[in-house]
Specification:
Rossmann fold, alcohol dehydrogenase, zinc, alpha/beta, Quinone Oxidoreductase, Chain A, domain 1, zinc ion binding, seven-stranded mixed beta sheet
Length: 348
């Protein structure tokens, strides 16, 4: 296949932005890499953080952002035998890892000290052709729509991993904080597909309607609840609290409330990243009730396979809007003004 020498991309040239729509060279894959022709890429709030350089991670500059890319493999390195030219592939946040350290050997590739992060430490998916390590791309079924699957490659995998980390079993109850947001709506669907019962926690009637439509057994509105802890416990089986809590909130307070309504021997999983926030829990309560508090980052390679499979079987629906890649600056503006219940954006 003949490939062009140049391509269109959205490039961050300096910390803080803006993104610049310009032509750059088409990269060539290394021995263990593939080149994916990106058909669609999701746009995530993490991409805003990347542009602003908000996180204590090494930020590549200039940088092509994006980490939810779905496309077709058009070239590959000499050592690649796990994927073929013409296969559909997803490029995720975890672009690559060493595969040799203690964490990689135990399927915790996201904790690899040398992990490569799409759209942050290496160029990502806001370009027509994107490089990724062959071992880390997700092979996508060819009958799956690439525009619809793009948000699954980050948001879907992230909440699915969190539910697995909670170790909640089918029939048990998970409280999802931020259930009416983009991550929360997917978390509810994955929880249901995994046989879990959902208590949805969020604010407003619009989100209540959406959560009930997604099958939540109870909706707790933090705007109107006079005692959120007691309301969640009352909505749980036997009034003993949720077996697991998934924290997707963008503010600190919910992270402090969770230990009050999680069931004894329950698990609290922190996924949301409120700025300058801390997790706090009474030591006595945590010890005598044997509560587990843990963080969950992004999924490993197998988590990606499983999350996409749930989607491919029609069990997960991620609403989205499409726009041309040149409109990315406007999409960033809209993301900053919309509520968290807005659909994902997918660029062509």
């Amino acid at each position: 296949m003949s490939l062009p020498d140049t391509q269109w991309a959205q490039v961050i040239e300096q910390k803080g932005g803006p993104v610049v729509y310009k032509q750059i060279p088409v990269p060539k894959p290394g021995p263990d890499e593939v080149l994916v022709k990106i058909k669609y890429t999701g746009v995530c709030h993490t991409d805003l953080h990347a542009m602003r350089g908000d996180w204590p991670l090494a930020l590549k500059l200039p940088l092509v952002g994006g980490h939810e890319g779905a496309g077709v493999v058009v070239a590959k390195g000499d050592l690649v035998n796990s994927i073929e030219i013409g296969d559909h592939a997803g490029v995720k946040w975890l672009n690559g890892s060493c595969l040799a350290c203690e964490f990689c050997k135990q399927s915790d590739e996201s904790l690899c000290p040398d992990a490569l992060l799409s759209g942050y430490t290496v160029d990502g998916t806001f370009q027509q052709y994107c490089i990724a390590k062959a071992a880390h791309v997700s092979i996508l079924p060819k009958n799956v729509a690439m525009n619809a699957v793009a948000p699954i490659l980050c948001a879907g995998i992230t909440v699915y991993k969190g539910l697995k980390e909670s170790q909640a079993r089918p029939g048990q109850t998970v409280a999802i904080v931020g259930a009416g947001g983009g991550l929360g709506s997917l978390a509810q669907q994955y929880a249901k597909a995994m046989g879990l019962r959902v208590i949805a926690i969020d604010g407003g009637e619009e989100k209540k309607a959406m959560c009930e439509q997604l099958g939540a057994e109870a909706y707790i509105d933090f705007h109107t609840s006079k005692d959120l802890v007691e309301d969640v416990k009352a909505a749980s089986p036997e009034g003993l609290g949720a077996h697991a809590v998934l924290l997707l909130a963008a503010s600190e307070k919910p992270f402090q409330q969770a230990t009050g309504y999680v069931r004894s021997r329950g698990t609290i999983v922190a996924i949301g990243l409120p700025a300058d926030a801390y997790l706090k829990s009474p030591v006595f309560n945590t010890v005598v009730r044997m509560i587990t508090i843990k963080g969950s980052y992004v999924g490993n390679r197998q988590d990606g396979v499983e999350a996409v499979d749930f989607f491919a079987r029609g069990l997960i629906n991620a609403p989205f809007k499409t726009a041309p890649l040149k409109d990315l600056p406007r999409i960033f503006e809209l993301m900053g003004s919309f509520s968290l219940s807005c659909p994902s954006f997918v660029c062509i």
